[in-house]
Specification:
Blueprint (H helix, E strand, L loop, with lengths): L1 H18 L5 H19 L1 H11 L9 H13 L8 H29 L7 H31 L5 H4 L14 H17 L3 H24 L9 H30 L13 H12 L8 H25 L5 H16 L6
Helix pairs in contact: 1-13, 2-5, 2-12, 3-12, 5-6, 5-13, 6-8, 6-9, 9-10, 10-11, 10-12
GO biological process, one term: mitochondrial coenzyme A transmembrane transport
Family: Belongs to the mitochondrial carrier (TC 2.A.29) family.
Keywords: Membrane, Mitochondrion, Mitochondrion inner membrane, Repeat, Transmembrane, Transmembrane helix, Transport
Length: 343
């Protein structure tokens, strides 16, 4: 009875906010997720650039190592080279993260309402996170493809052509829109979704595990430390580390499929698992974990910052807690099923 009364109070507060012209809950969740994604992605852009060059076996970066890669980028492209493709990355990650976090919250509430016996344990976060990840990928994948192609280009400025660093055999893209247009003209809509298979195979377990580990770790934090930013960063770091390690090989397959059109190789790969098998046979199983050490350096701050900024933004935007929103949903559902109780 007390829980229902609490839900009614929370519901009334939300209704008052709506009448006062407040921001709808779903918009707040989208805004919080988008800001979190943009900040987290930009903070690790240099490591993301080098990781992609390792994953796609760019010839100039196969044997120089992490520090050598940083030096080569600085020498050929300057400091801005570390952010090549980051515009496309942020343009993708803002809507992606917004959809991802919002969809997670929506799916979580829908599951609780549809299957009340499932409880609010780790299985709920695993399922809701997985479906949310798949939803986000489908809507934003072309921008991920563009980001990879732009990051794969080591030199694209005219001043480097005179230094002999520009390879005329490669397709050159001048920016996000130019890349999308050229891909579509050459391969149609299908070309914009090249590599989406391993992305979906990878995002379902990764996204689910990421939310699962994060929420599970937070459950073991003492109540008086739950709002501590340092604790949130630590939980996010471990969650990203564990989730990414398990699904990393599929990320390598995805990157190689995305840049295949840029390569002069005559290799033709038909699908995700065929590509996975071919990489193992021709490049060795270690290639499936190429760039993983860099990814550890990237994932730890990226996921940690993402989750932390999301929680901080929700607090700043006065988004009700998941328990309050769930109570609101239950009360609303009960009222719709028993309209007589309103009189």
């Amino acid at each position: 009875m007390a829980e229902e009364r609490g839900g009614e109070v929370a519901a009334a507060a939300v209704e008052d906010e709506g009448r006062g012209g407040g921001i709808p809950l779903i918009v707040k969740e989208l805004l919080a997720g988008g800001v979190a994604g943009g900040i987290a992605k930009t903070s690790v852009a240099p490591l993301e650039r080098v990781k992609i060059l390792f994953q796609t076996r760019r010839a100039e970066f196969r044997s120089v190592g992490l520090l050598g890669s940083f030096q080569k980028i600085v020498q050929t492209e300057g400091l801005l080279g570390f952010y090549r493709g980051n515009g496309a990355s942020v343009a993708r990650i803002v809507p992606y993260a917004a959809l991802h976090y919002m969809a997670y919250e929506q799916y979580r509430r829908w599951i609780i309402l549809s299957f009340p016996d499932i409880g609010k344990g780790p299985v709920l976060d695993l399922v809701a996170g997985s479906i949310a990840g798949g939803t986000s990928v489908i809507f934003t994948y072309p921008l991920d493809l563009v980001r990879t192609k732009l990051a794969y280009q080591v030199v694209g400025q005219s001043r480097f052509k005179n230094r002999g660093l520009y390879h005329s055999s490669e397709q050159v893209y001048q920016g996000i829109l130019d890349c999308i247009i050229k891909i579509y003209q050459k391969n149609g809509l299908r070309g914009l979704y090249r590599g989406v298979g391993p992305s979906l195979y990878g995002i379902f377990p990764y996204s689910g595990l990421k939310f699962y580990f994060y929420e599970e770790l937070k459950r073991h934090v003492p109540e008086d430390h739950k709002k501590d930013v340092t604790v949130k960063l630590a939980c996010g770091s471990v969650a990203g580390l564990l989730g990414q390690t398990i699904t990393y090989p599929l990320d390598v397959v995805r990157r190689q499929m995305q840049v295949q059109a840029l390569s002069t190789s005559n290799e033709v790969r038909k699908g995700t698992f065929e590509s996975l098998e071919m990489i193992v046979q021709t490049q060795g199983w270690r290639q499936l974990f190429s760039g993983l050490s860099i990814n550890f350096l990237k994932v730890v701050p990226s996921v940690a910052i993402g989750f932390t900024v999301y929680d901080v933004m929700k607090s700043w935007l006065k988004v009700p807690s998941r328990e309050e929103v769930a109570a609101i949903s239950v009360v609303t559902e009960n009222k719709s099923n028993h309209p007589s109780s309103l009189h």
